[in-house]
Input
Amino acid sequence: MSHDLQTAETTKSVPRIGVLMAVLGIVYGDIGTSPLYAFKASLQLFDPTQTTAVEIFGVLSLIFWSLIIIVTIKYVFLVMRADNRGEGGILALMALAQRVSVGAATKSGLALVGIAGACLFFGDGVITPAISVLSAVEGLEVSAPQLKLYVLPISVAVIVALFAAQYQGTGRVGRVFGPIMVVWFLVIGLAGLLEIIQYPLVLKAVSPSYAFALCLQYKGLAFFVLGAVVLCVTGAEALYADMGHFGAKPIKITWLTFVLPSLILNYFGQGALMLHDPAAIQNPFFLLQPEWLRLPMVILATLATVIASQAVISGAFSMARQCMQLGFLPRMTVRHTSNMEEGQIYVPQVNTALAIGVVLLVLAFKTSDNLASAYGIAVTGTFLCTAILAMVVFRRQFHWSRFAAISVFGSLFMIDTVFFSANTVKVVEGGWVPLAMGLALTGMMTSWKRGRDLLLSRWKQSSMPLAPFLARLPQSRIIRVPGLAVFMTSNPDYVPTSLLHNLKHNKVLHENVLFVTVENEDVPEVSPQRRTETALLAPGIHRVILRYGFMESPNIPRELESLTDDLGVRVSQASYFLGREVLVPGMAPKLPWWRRALFLIMARNAVPATEFFRIPSDRVVELGVRITI
Output
């Protein structure tokens, strides 16, 4: 059954309300909690003692049109059409763009754009939990000022608990995410509506003329304001990235009919509050609520921000697995937390790195206002990468004319560029954090990719082609012993180095031999019909090719067990022979020193192939080989 059919059947079998509820719980946590800090951060850039209708209307107009142009038009109506066999996200879009492009240079350039976007997404994964949880817990300062000193410790405790619970998976708590987010959007939308009814004049801010007026009056300062306004669209990438879980239609329906109206009502409600009470700039989101509701609202906001953080963390796990399968990261432990859902995974190394990064950010920046400076660059950088890749896909796959593709996505790219540029002025204040993380991760991923490509070329030079080896095998004096041996090889046309070393040291070959190659394809999932390919090469010797998509995790023993009848051997009794590469610096390295150092560090910390491929360790024979690089 193909992935598309599975998705279709899932959608049919689950009640429509259940799908929409799940979408609210998983997809909209990030963008849904933006009202906690986006309007406040934008307005605080002006003189708080002289805030007038010009600033309030201008900021509201910028927020409104950002939600319409970037989220609704760019992502909901355009980018979400470009699915990679049902899957979305920056890496799925990159693979799609590479598939429809020609030329090695073009494909390499697109890969770099996709990797840069993925690295910035990881930066977003560190900042989102920090700013979201902090902004929610800061509501205590409004409802109970005496608890101000406890905001930081409570925030750290919530974050530590969140990451500590990741190993259990999201399945258990996922069922309550949807209803909580429904309550969240209803409450924030209703609070905004009640304030708008009292001061309907605020609805004039829908006109883009107020945004232009603000920019004309404040010029340079308005540029800084754009850097804060972009906070209202954080999480837009999640609409596209989570498309594989639910399909495009439920995400579009919930956005247009429920989430977007609730967000606009709340932002305009905060604006209406500011029109008659400029002192509310302290925290307009919580002051918008009745006094009796503020403390419960802190609890609800904390739950909503935990959900937002959970979605980003889960996304980081999936992104890390995709990078591993596409060859941009070394093998890491991938634990499946659900027997039913393939997508529910836990990556301990990524979880630990994120947890340390988030706690350090909270302790270093201390308030959500300070963190707002670091947030925008990661988000807008990903927007830029998506616009470039989408332009290629719509030109090549959807056969848009060059003029149409450049006009539409060029315009969106220019808007994203303005927002990105507005955030670069905040580099000193904290914007360097996602930039540094993005550059470091890009350096690591590209170094790993180049190092592995170099190793493969070196391996081919020193290896023996398989065809002449098999041709000479009947005349050789190699002793065949009972049993089944599985030799892992990255290239099915060459003799595995582990086999050559086994012959060199043990002088024997098993009666039954499987040469197993794992191929990673640039599709989300490989259909069961294409999963395995077998061929009889010589008496007792088979070649097996196993194919996996970038959203899947290999399980070699399980796949080989399914081939027992085809191969005519009991795979459960097999011995697995693996080559362990011992990498050492060479005298004439082909990599720059910093790339070589990164590659060697990553290689030494990579998870063993036995664990990654889920091969039982008591049935593995490892034969070492020394390789200079």
In short: The longest strand covers residues 508-520. The chain is about 65% helix and 10% strand. Residues 1-15 have pLDDT under 50 and may be disordered. The CA atoms of residues 318 and 551 lie 7 Å apart.
